[in-house]
Amino acid sequence: MAEKCVVLLSGGLDSATVLGLARAEGRECYALSFEYGQRHRVELECAREQARRAGVARHLVLRVDLDAIGGSCLTSAGAAVPAADLARERIPSTYVPARNTIFLAHALAWAEVLGAPRIDLGINAVDYSGYPDCRPEFLQAFQKMANLATAAGVEGRGEVRIHAPLLYWSKAEIIRRGLACGVDYGRTNSCYDPDAAGRACGRCDACALRAAAFAEVGIPDPALGGTA
Amino acid sequence: MAEKCVVLLSGGLDSATVLGLARAEGRECYALSFEYGQRHRVELECAREQARRAGVARHLVLRVDLDAIGGSCLTSAGAAVPAADLARERIPSTYVPARNTIFLAHALAWAEVLGAPRIDLGINAVDYSGYPDCRPEFLQAFQKMANLATAAGVEGRGEVRIHAPLLYWSKAEIIRRGLACGVDYGRTNSCYDPDAAGRACGRCDACALRAAAFAEVGIPDPALGGTA
Hints:
The structure is a homodimer of 228-residue chains. Chain A is an alpha/beta fold. Helix content of chain A is 38%, strand content 11%. Chain A has helices at 13-24, 42-54, 66-69, 99-114, 136-149, 151-154, 171-180, 205-217, and strands at residues 4-8, 28-35, 58-63, 118-120, 161-163. Chain A is globular, with a radius of gyration of 17 Å. Chain A starts with a strand and ends in an 11-residue tail after the last helix. The mean pLDDT of chain A is 89. The A-B interface holds A 60, 62-66, 68-71, 90-91, 95-102, 104-106, 108-110, 112-113, 132-133, 135, 137-138, 141-142, 144-146, 148-151, 153-155 and B 60, 62-66, 68-71, 90-91, 95-102, 104-106, 108-110, 112-113, 132-133, 135, 137-138, 141-142, 144-146, 148-151, 153-155.
């Protein structure tokens, strides 16, 4: 029987790659997405499409009230998303407080219910926006906490492992590996501030990172209709 | 200026006590409750009443989809809540996978947005139902993870502390301390399986623990109309 894993699936380039890698390993994948008041809700449509294409065992979309908590321009309709500045020293306003902790906590609950020994997510410590919850030391601490939190851990029914295969890859390497296992990047959204039709803004950190990576790989970004 | 804290407020006896203690310290309290598909939804009415009485700065009730994840009789309408058995060796079916991790993760987000250096919660390692996420080692691991997860921790704007004042108190001691700071236990719900009118079942673990504690303190449980 294929081993299960819960895959955090945002609908972006990174998580689509993680799902593609898990499928290529032959895992039975349970995709988990969140409606959290994000302004870039088009990513949920992309997540549904990626889950469908990958033939996941189940795709769960949960509501979390991060917009009620606030603290990020990504969940505040009135706040502007800053222009790309990958050399900035402060954590940008696109940071959503404790978002990965909250997402991983839900994934932990589902993994325990499913008996899945692994949670996969697409965080990256190289080409990233400087978020504290994308760092390896955060992941290690989360995994340690997770195995003290659950009945499965305590009763010895198996520990859960937090699997972040992209952690040390460049964005270009992520794309190359994803293409090798058949990921369709035409149906992914990375932009923090797409327009009403779901078109990328081309000016935020995420757009800048993505454009640079496709340029490095030497192919046009298929999400831009091949015109990039 | 009073120091802030985020208080996880379920509407039960323990969390009402924690809120009372924080108020007695002169803290500015931000109460956080969750609608998570729990069958004992009467506890949310109790939480609202406790928050009002304590004069909290704000009371936020967030929706989390734990019922969509499942794995507990507390979030499954069809499943029976087991009769009290405090000598059982296995973790009971009232355990909700990763619930405290998910609640604390939301509290962490709010604490970061508020600039609150402390998160208070009423977990207890003595008179409890055997849940893994009520143990001191879980709390310590969560706190370590939390300070790696947030911008506040990384940028040196202050670490967050997880404060569990009841951790090593007996249920009777919790009640005595709560009474000393004016907690109204008449407006708390501890029962896992109240009836439609919000009346305690009298047979679950939580009812058994509560009844034994009021008996030890030597006063009737005010939530039972003084007839206990």
